[in-house]
Amino acid sequence: MDVAVGLTETGKVYIRRSDLERIARRIGVTVDELAARLGARPEQAGRGVRYVIDDLWGIVLGKLVELEERVSRLEGRRIEEDFGKVLDQAIRHSAGPTGYAPLRAVKDFVVSKLGISDAEFVERLAKLLSERRGKYVLLEGGDDKIYVNGKGYGYIKNTGM
Amino acid sequence: MPCDIPAWPVARRGLRLVGRRWAEALEELSALASRYPLSALIGRSGMGKTQLLYALCERIDCIYIDATELPQRDLAHVAAVVAWRLAVGSKTRSKITDVYRRYGFQGILSLAQGDPSWTLSSALDLAQGRLVVALDEWIPSPEDPQFFQAASALHRIRNMGLNKAGFVVSFLPEVYEKLASKVPPLGNVLTAVSVQLPDVLAEDEAWEIASAYCPERAKLAISLLRARPEATIRELLMAISAAKEVEIPVE
After folding, report:
1. Which of A45, A74, A86, A100 could form a disulfide with A157 if both were Cys (CB 3.0 to 4.6 A apart)?
2. What are the residues of chain A with a beta carbon less than 8 Å away from any beta carbon of chain B?
């Protein structure tokens, strides 16, 4: 699709109205909606109308940042879904004869598998514990403790509830 | 039935042991104690270990030792306590009874500090038949400064292979885990002769336990357990004893 994009006398980018109409039709929105999304304002140019985009780079960079945030939100959701599974896997690998696993070993497994920070592990564990009450039992004893919700815990067990 | 919920729910002698899985644990522990020189009872704090040891001692010839009373948790002190308890009622003439009659407990302790294994073995000769020694609170936490000293005493009991006594030792799961990883020769043996109490209560068990103290509060116990499924028996009893009398709907 040929789109005539030019620069105004003051160096701002503009698009001809007919071109903007074609693009709007193609993506299924009205010209006004598209112009609003691009931050473009109509301006008389001879006998026709053109849309001037006052801050093109601001819009492009803004969209990139928005996309980045959406991707990281989606990845976050995936980590959250995986967190429980990887935690159970880590408990299985580290559990001793009583079924309890040292929380430090569990944390090391989970953070290396999911590529999250120690702080993120604690936050996600605290969230999981409040969402799935009774599924996990934590013991306060242990030489090496991890602090969750203000208490130091040394061991964790999946009760299977 | 009147409500008699203990406001301070710690184990008490003479209470009936409630809960199917606790009854099964008692059966299993009795069998292990009657057969092996050493066995373990594992359970979270507040899940009934001491109550189960009391129930065990009501059922078989037993010496219950709460190790929080001992200044040192080593073989010498266990041997001295066992020797002293057996010497008190013994009519038999032996080095142990002689020392007890002359010097009392301190004499027996001196003897045990000199040779703990000999004192323990000689003391057990005074028992009429097989004796069970229930050691409670032997290692109260994994961070206990006497952890390795206390573990060494158990290691020595394991090595003595006593045939006249069965030592039953209660452990928190975290203590047992540390013991198994730091002293593998002991952990390996104990794993084969251990009974583990449930980590969480089932609703029917919570109902049964609460009903034993106060049937009117059984519904409340279920509601509390649904809100906190990881609650221990002690926490549940404390909560129902503290709660005001309200009607709780339970489907």
Report:
1. A100
2. 96-100, 102, 133-134, 136-137, 139, 141-143, 154-155, 157, 159, 161
